[in-house]
């Protein structure tokens, strides 16, 4: 059945997507098989299908996380410890064993869809559909480390989160040390667990003795679990998602031995766009920011403009707050990104340059070409201050798409081919400390 001549999604395919979204894989399989064999009546029409101009969720709901009130600082149970030592399968193997693995008929269909010339909303990534159904893989953690579940309640509502505490944290506390904190914001359809597995940030936290907090965006806030970077109410200080994230960050700082001068925030895609917003709305809270495949501050103000911006970049120049403090920034973007056009990454850098120029500091711009057999070719821009510190880095990754560079294939929206974005972000972060005044 050839749909390449149509410019709409086949009705039965939309229905199958909705079934997969709700976890009804068997019914979706039957629908697809019947259609491919011609034994189906297309009662669904474009009039009664969902609006194509909406952000759609292709990931089944995950169970609600338990409140952390009784587990916040608890030690792993003996049962949990036993599970850690006995489970020797890799995240990749567990992904293949997942009960949510796509049936062969649906996997075959997703392969066929890649050849259809249909105008699906850019938030739907057919290539990521099978990965999207496996986004809740529990990461393997070392003995004595913890990956706590929590729910943080504030004036802006409640969100779940996961907090990674490295095995070395107790020793650091006993020595009177305070450790860095990194806030990691997942992309659309992802979960904290998936993002942790894909980026490998927990492993780096062990190496560099950091806490990592992964806030979770629920489907009640956005059906595709996107951070609402395009809504005016979520682009300002003191309200919406920025206020909730800031309060969560401050809560972790107060509840644990965190160095408040070494708090950082990073994200992918919609999470990266929200990280940019956090740097604009709470610059006094974060010492540096990491942006992977993101969008500039106030580059959109509603859903239609968001979809247009993702495809082509923003057509307007946002009104940046005057005299705002610049937050050092490292940016990654693939020049073959078909979900968030690379023009968006360039606009993030342009905004950062405006901020830097307003600081009236002496700056040196350096550009290099980097490449190896294990990595994509990279054009790297560095803006260095008079103290020799990188204030801005931009990694333009030639040939890369909408994926976390150097990430694990066990997570969604990752590309194992380098550069290693997580490692480079950690390096950049730990060069910077928050200053007052």
UniProtKB/TrEMBL annotation:
Claim: Hydrolase is one of the keywords in the record: yes
Keywords assigned: Hydrolase, Signal
Compositional bias annotation for Polar residues: 33-56, 96-105
InterPro entries: AB_hydrolase_fold (IPR029058), Esterase_phb (IPR010126), Plant_Biomass_Hydrol_Est (IPR050955)
Record region (Disordered): 33-105
Bias type Basic and acidic residues, positions: 75-95
Pfam family, one: Esterase_PHB
NCBIfam families with a match to the protein in the record: esterase_phb (TIGR01840)
Protein name: PHB depolymerase family esterase
